[in-house]
Structure formats: structure tokens, C-alpha cells
Specification:
The protein is α/β, with parallel strands linked by helices and about 350 residues long. The protein folds into two domains: about 170 residues, Periplasmic binding protein-like II (D-Maltodextrin-Binding Protein, domain 2, 3-Layer(aba) Sandwich), CATH 3.40.190; about 140 residues, 3-Layer(aba) Sandwich (D-Maltodextrin-Binding Protein, domain 2). The protein is built from 13 helices and ten strands. Strands 1, 2, 3, 4, 7, 8, 9 and 10 form an eight-stranded mixed β-sheet that branches. Strand 5, helix 6 and strand 6 form a beta-alpha-beta unit. Helix 10 crosses helix 12. The longest helix has 24 residues. The protein is globular. The N and C termini lie far apart (about 70 Å). The relative contact order is 0.16.
Length: about 350
């Protein structure tokens, strides 16, 4: 090799070494991982029931906290009910949604009130138990669900078909079916509230703590009160058969507007669901806010008091958890062997 050729070879080698050094310095292991990580979105949407519903209040509370405590702005988008947004979530076009446990379970499988399955929804977390009830004027002769026989009751629920099952389960505790009442067709919760205030139905259907109940209490002379379910083994068996996933809880006097005594009430869990294709980083960022600032979340409304860390993961789940949520809860030490077993079973359905 001539001196000129050796000089060119050495120069080429030196240039190669310099490039390696430059890239090695520019892409340290930590920086390489950061380069691969996708930035969090500026905004996401959380779907809720209509304005005035408890679900809208829950979603609004979570959205406010996430928007204040993270770089993500969470936008609340009210709908008549989950059937209006579940198709978008199943297709990955809606990030978050608030739903009741039985509605999520039947939507995931495509049974009950859902004519098609939505296999691409996943659980983010489980919130508080929700108490579902009929509400009557304080001076009404309707004292229990059995007294609804022959009374005008909101029915149909084209926009929220799950209520056909939840309200039907409530009637079942009184030994009644939909054929035992005067059915007054409504599409969704706001219409249900409006016709009650107009005196066209004898009862309102809503959850304990919902803003709509507070409004009805203020506008109906004397206020409203919760109509108790009949609390016997036979009644509760009929309730669970009509709407699987519901159970009885006693709501204490004064726990919310219209609860004028300790009352047995139909209950089930509120959940936040997400699109299966939502990136893990987004799921974990939102969960981190709701976990780390849980005390603040629980102070927003009386209904939010039970949105505790202890309830976020439960073997009562009927929809698989999102992979990002599983990683988060594992890191927090609350993802058990029983949860792992349940997750595998749910993913097979």
C-alpha cells in the first residue's frame, strides 16, 4: 500500500470513528428510549351520559382533575347514552367513557340491551357503587316499588336501553314487570326528567346524587324521596336475574338529596372504560392523576366519596383491563394473582 493510499485509509477510518462517537454521544441509552416514546396528546375526550346525570358529573370531576394536574386536557362530551359512543370507542376513535358495570359487561359481549359486541373496549378503573332508584314526590302514596303497580313510569329508553333492564330489575323487587305499570315512553334521562317535572309521570328514574334529582327536589313542592326496593331474598333474586351485576346496598339517611331515611337500593359499579388501542402512556398518565390526587377527586361531590384507590381494581370486573392499566396497578402493588386469573378469563370471552 502506498503512502497516499494509507493516508486515505487512515482518514476514512478516523471519519468513521468520529461519526460513531457523535452518534453514541447523541443517542445515549436513556435518550434513545426517550426518542422512541411518543409524546402525550394535548387533549382527549371522555364520553358521559347527558348533562345533569350523575355520569356527567363523574366524568366532569375526573376531567377537571386530569386537565389541572397533567399536560393533557380532558374534554367532556355528553351523549344520550353509551350506545351513542361505544361504536366510536370500539373503533379507537373515542378515548375514555363513563359507564355502569352491567352496561359495560353486556356491551363487551353483545348481549342484553346490546345487539352487537364491542370487544375493543377495556377497563381503566372501577369507581364508586352507583345507586339506582325511582324517585317520587315526598307526599306521594308510592312508598315501595310494589306501589308502582298501575302508576305512570318512564319506559322504552331508546337512547339508553340498559335502563330497560336496570329499571325493570327495580320493578322486579316489587313483584312487578313492565306490563304492570303504565308505560310512558322516553328516549333518555333528560326527557325522563322533563316529563316528570311536567307531571306526566308519577316517578323519576335517576341515580342517587345526580344533579337532576337535586333539581327535581327544588322544583317539586315538598321535594322528592327515593323509592326503596323490596329487600327480601326472593326480591333480590328477581332483581339480579333481570339485570345481572346488580346488588343491594343500604343508602343512609341524608347521604344525598331525597334520601329521607335508610333505604335498601339497587346498586352496581360505575366504571371508566377506554379504547383498547389507546397508548399505554396515555392510560398511565390519566391513572397517575386519579391515583395521586385521589383525595381531591373524592371531595368534588358526595357521590365521588367512594371513588377510592381501594376500589380501582376489583375481581368483580366484567370487562378486561387495558394493558397500560395492568402495568400501572402492578407497579402500585394492587394487581393480584386473582386479578391476573380473571383478566385471562375475560380476554377469552
Amino acid at each position: 500500500m502506498s503512502n497516499h493510499e494509507r493516508w486515505r485509509y487512515d482518514l476514512t477510518q478516523l471519519a468513521g470513528l468520529m461519526l460513531i462517537a457523535i452518534f453514541a454521544g447523541a443517542l445515549r441509552p436513556g435518550d434513545a428510549a426517550a426518542a422512541e416514546a411518543k409524546p402525550l396528546p394535548k387533549s382527549v375526550v371522555i364520553a358521559t351520559h347527558a348533562t345533569g346525570s350523575g355520569f356527567h358529573a363523574d366524568g366532569s370531576a375526573a376531567a377537571k382533575l386530569v386537565s389541572e394536574k397533567s399536560s393533557i386536557t380532558m374534554i367532556v362530551r355528553p351523549h344520550p347514552g353509551p350506545p351513542a359512543w361505544l361504536p366510536a370507542m370500539n373503533d379507537g376513535e373515542m378515548e375514555f367513557g363513563v359507564i355502569v358495570g352491567s352496561d359495560g359487561a353486556t356491551a363487551f359481549r353483545g348481549i342484553g340491551s346490546h345487539r352487537r359486541a364491542y370487544p375493543n373496549i377495556r377497563l381503566l378503573m372501577i369507581g364508586a357503587p352507583m345507586h339506582l332508584a325511582f324517585w317520587a314526590p315526598l307526599d306521594s302514596p308510592i312508598k315501595t316499588t310494589a306501589d308502582l303497580k298501575g302508576k305512570r313510569v318512564p319506559s322504552g329508553w331508546a337512547g339508553l336501553p340498559i335502563i330497560h333492564y336496570t329499571a325493570g330489575a327495580n320493578l322486579a323487587t316489587g313483584g312487578l314487570s313492565w306490563d304492570d305499570v303504565v308505560k310512558v315512553p322516553v328516549a333518555e334521562l333528560n326527557e325522563n326528567q322533563r316529563i316528570f317535572l311536567e307531571g306526566r309521570t308519577d316517578v323519576l328514574w335517576h341515580s342517587v346524587g345526580a344533579p337532576a334529582v337535586q333539581e327535581a327536589n327544588a322544583r317539586i313542592r315538598g321535594g322528592v324521596r327515593l323509592v326503596p326496593i323490596r329487600n327480601t331474598p326472593e326480591s333480590l333474586k328477581r332483581m339480579a336475574a333481570f339485570n345481572p351485576g346488580t346488588y343491594m346496598m343500604v343508602v343512609k339517611k341524608g347521604a344525598a338529596v331525597g334520601v329521607v331515611e335508610d333505604v335498601p337500593t339497587q346498586s352496581e359499579d360505575i366504571c371508566i372504560v377506554v379504547a383498547a388501542r389507546l397508548p399505554d402512556e396515555v392510560v398511565q398518565a390519566v391513572l397517575n392523576v386519579l391515583w395521586e390526587h385521589n383525595d381531591e377527586l373524592r371531595k368534588v361531590t358526595p357521590r365521588m366519596q367512594s371513588w377510592s384507590r381501594q376500589r380501582m381494581v376489583s375481581t368483580a370486573a366484567a370487562v378486561p383491563f387495558h394493558a397500560g392499566a395492568i402495568k400501572f396497578f402492578r407497579d402500585k402493588g394492587v394487581w393480584s394473582a386473582d386479578m391476573e386469573k380473571l383478566q385471562r378469563e375475560l380476554e377469552k370471552r
